[in-house]
């Protein structure tokens, strides 16, 4: 079944319906939240194979095994994590009343209450994970939700819309499908919060649209996540792990290693380690079911253009092609891992997020040079350090800023459900995952209770002031 595109004119009515239901149901018990999360878990688990098939159809080729752990198991695991922690997360937090009011019986607490209706705009690279993963925490916080999946994965978007309609009332969760015009209208709705995952360029437009209605936003963007290879790194292990993170989903990951910084004397060794990693994990590429295709012709042409630009500007191009396959004789949008050696800062590869199997390698003499290079650019979503020198590692961590860090691997910090995930600066704002994500989608509402005693009068807060005021009388003046 193909779900027809949503008419942008219907979006306001969809939002109004959800907000009305949200207001009418308040206060809503935690059992309702757990029930919605149970339905979300069942939706994904019972339809995992169909969702993987839809993603494979949208990409042209995408490993079912990869999709099962990146998009299916990750969502169900995170939804269970949220469900099992709703009670502690939602418990009011006692705070200290100001002195001396606390001694006189004043009380203060913070309640973490649902915001209302939250919009979720998700991208194409992990079309199930990045739509339904944030949804789990949005539901855990007691909100209703409207989803807008990417139009670049139409089969997956249509199936998500169909499954959501079967498992949730439209007053709880609903899906808007369609092209960029639908997305533009969606981002302009007066939500109570808006979550966007995608490029920094589009994130700016989404934030601008949301600002017209003063809608708070969570922006999960991307950027150029660097890998710093320290002098004490185990090269074989480093190469294998970089290959795993860079070639998964054909590099179409917001956290994929975007460029390498390696000691000059270790450059040849790092390249050899990358070649070994590719040979071990992807001995062939063109007919390899484990290796994803680039999502569409436009993205494929963009990646080819990045390589051509680097070649024209003097970069050395090394295509790691273990089986010596002819990629020019196919239209399946496959690319080998392509190294750009000696990249210059004026190359496209060093100016924009690559989002594909292209990997520039820059060299450095001392670790401070590598740190300065990272700090001279936009703050990345992820930063990766390989090495066994604790002092060097701490120097990198202490002197750089990034959304998150993985040490001696890449990407894996996003897998920690119990810790916040998000960007900083150009790589985004806000978090989900962990208790921080629950609070992101909650309104922290302060409740102050005044004692029976006339505190304002006793404290001289209310007039008359001066020598004839209450304080003066209390002091006998």
Automatic annotation (TrEMBL):
Catalytic residues as annotated in Swiss-Prot or TrEMBL: 220, 254
GO cellular component, one term: cytoplasm
A Pfam entry, by short name: Aldedh
InterPro entries found in the cross-reference section: Ald_DH/histidinol_DH (IPR016161), Ald_DH_C (IPR016163), Ald_DH_CS_GLU (IPR029510), Ald_DH_N (IPR016162), Aldehyde_DH_dom (IPR015590), Aldehyde_DH_NAD(P) (IPR012394)
All residue ranges annotated as the Aldehyde dehydrogenase domain in the record: 2-447
One MF term in the entry's GO annotations: aldehyde dehydrogenase (NAD+) activity
One GO BP: aldehyde metabolic process
Superkingdom of origin: Bacteria
Key words of the record: NAD, Oxidoreductase
Entry-linked SUPFAM superfamilies: ALDH-like (SSF53720)
CDD domains assigned: ALDH_CALDH_CalB (cd07133)
Similarity comment: Belongs to the aldehyde dehydrogenase family.
The protein, known as: Aldehyde dehydrogenase
Annotated source species: Aurantiacibacter arachoides
Taxonomic lineage of the native organism: Bacteria, Pseudomonadati, Pseudomonadota, Alphaproteobacteria, Sphingomonadales
């Amino acid at each position: 079944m193909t779900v027809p595109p949503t008419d942008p004119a219907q979006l306001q009515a969809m939002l109004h319906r959800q907000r009305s239901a949200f207001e009418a149901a308040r206060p809503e018990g935690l059992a309702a939240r757990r029930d919605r999360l149970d339905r979300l878990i069942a939706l994904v688990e019972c339809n995992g194979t169909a969702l993987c098939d839809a993603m494979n159809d949208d990409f042209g080729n995408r490993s079912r095994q990869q999709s099962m752990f990146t998009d299916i198991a990750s969502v169900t695991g995170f939804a269970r994590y949220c469900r099992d922690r709703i009670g502690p997360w939602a418990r009011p937090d006692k705070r200290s009343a100001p002195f001396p009011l606390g001694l006189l019986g004043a009380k203060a607490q913070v309640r973490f209450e649902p915001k209302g209706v939250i919009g979720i705009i998700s991208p194409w690279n992990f079309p199930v994970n990045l739509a339904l993963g944030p949804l789990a925490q949005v539901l855990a916080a007691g909100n209703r939700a409207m989803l807008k999946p990417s139009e670049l994965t139409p089969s997956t978007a249509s199936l998500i819309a169909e499954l959501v309609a079967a498992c949730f009332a439209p007053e709880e969760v609903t899906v808007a499908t369609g092209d960029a015009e639908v997305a533009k209208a969606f981002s302009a709705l007066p939500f109570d919060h808006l979550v966007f995952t995608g490029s920094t360029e589009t994130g700016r437009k989404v934030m601008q649209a949301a600002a017209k209605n003063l809608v708070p936003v969570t922006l999960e963007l991307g950027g150029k996540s660097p890998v710093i290879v320290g002098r004490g790194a185990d090269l074989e292990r480093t190469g294998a792990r970089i290959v795993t993170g860079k070639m998964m989903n054909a590099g179409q990951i917001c956290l994929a290693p975007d460029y390498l910084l390696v000691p000059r004397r270790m450059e040849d060794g790092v390249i050899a380690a990358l070649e070994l990693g590719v040979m071990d994990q992807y001995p062939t590429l063109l007919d390899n079911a484990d290796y994803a295709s680039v999502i569409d012709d436009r993205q494929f042409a963009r990646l080819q253009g990045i390589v051509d630009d680097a070649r024209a500007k003097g970069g050395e191009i090394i295509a790691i092609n273990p089986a010596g396959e002819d990629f020019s004789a196919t239209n399946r949008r496959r690319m080998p891992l392509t190294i750009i050696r000696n990249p210059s800062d004026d190359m496209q590869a060093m100016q924009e997020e690559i989002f594909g199997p292209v990997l520039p390698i820059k060299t450095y003499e001392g670790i401070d040079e590598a740190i300065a290079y990272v700090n001279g650019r936009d703050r990345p979503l992820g930063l990766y350090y390989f090495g066994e020198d604790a002092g060097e590692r701490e120097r990198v961590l202490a002197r750089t800023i990034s959304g998150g860090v993985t040490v001696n691997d890449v990407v894996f910090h996003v897998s920690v459900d119990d810790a916040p995930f998000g960007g900083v600066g150009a790589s985004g704002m806000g978090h989900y995952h962990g208790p921080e994500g629950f609070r992101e989608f909650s309104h922290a509402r302060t409740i102050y209770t005044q004692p029976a005693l006339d505190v304002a009068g006793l404290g001289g807060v209310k007039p008359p002031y001066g020598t004839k005021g209450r304080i003066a009388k209390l002091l006998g003046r």
